[in-house]
Amino acid sequence: MPESYPRFHLALPVTDLDATRAFYTDLLGCPTGRESSRWVDLDFFGHQLVLHRVEPEDHPAAASNAVDGHDVPAGHFGPVLAWETWEALAERMRERGVEFLIEPYVRFEGKAGEQGTFFVRDPSGNALEFKTFRDISKLFATDLDTPA
Fold first, then answer.
1. What is the structure's pLDDT at 142?
2. Which of the 8 DSSP states describes residue 123?
């Protein structure tokens, strides 16, 4: 991972530290850093993700919004990946039997903002979105619906 900045830091509540850690390390390939019996630091695609164990009753509930006919969790996060990496990760998740909240699909196909997306939950119920763009320069574009 390049040494460029800025990087984000996200602390995430988890109800099962061991299973959630395995999801991020074994499935997503995130290396670990510092840790204790209640938390662990992860290198999440070059960003610092800290899993903090909480009691199930203290884990926040997630609301959702309708997007493209899908029920998208309002609270979610995830990396923007290269197209080939995104496809390979989706396939790896299928092979391991990970349940998709929203199956991989392409939005704005053939348009300037063409992008792929899919959603999963980690073992503690946190929603992750994995995205990719055909043209990464369109990440913050407002003209996503124009022809490519």
1. 81
2. T
